Amino acid sequence: QVQLVESGGGLVQPGGSLKLSCVASGSMFRFYAMNWYRQTPGKQRELVATITSGGGSTNYVDSVKGRFTISRDNAKNTVYLQMNSLKPEDTAVYYCKIAVLAVWGQGTQVTVSS
């Protein structure tokens, strides 16, 4: 069973930056497209960004385009989410997920506040 472990969350002021990481176990990571989701209390999880298995194609929800960048390093079994120009409305628990499997990490809290 593949496991995902996110890290890199924290408290940041509006306009600041954070870089999230998600490390996957196993040897199949390089074959999977990967997603980053986020969730706030009382709301459904929102798909934020997607990257293909080779990293050649990415997609973003409109609210983060131009501010967030998803990337991956298949040699390190890791997917990243670079978040710049953070806004209070980006506050959420962020999760990584293998696109085609019901496998989630435990999440990492991002709080944007002054």
Notable traits:
globular, 0% helix
Describe what is shown at a glance:
The protein is mainly beta.
Report what the structure shows.
This protein has 114 residues and is mainly β. It has no helices and ten strands. A hairpin with a 6-residue loop joins strand 4 (34-39) and strand 5. The radius of gyration is 13 Å and the shape is globular. The model has no long low-confidence stretch (mean pLDDT 96).
Q: What would the principal axes of the Cα set say about the shape?
A: globular
Assembly state = single chain
Low-confidence stretches: none
Largest sheet: 6 strands, mixed
Strand content: over 45%
Please give the share of residues in helix.
under 10%
SSE sequence, one letter per element: EEEEEEEEEE
Q: How far from one another are the termini?
A: 40 Å
Helix run count: 0
What would the average pLDDT be, to the nearest integer? 96
Strand order of the largest sheet: 2-10-9-4-5-6
Structural class: mainly beta
Number of strands: 10
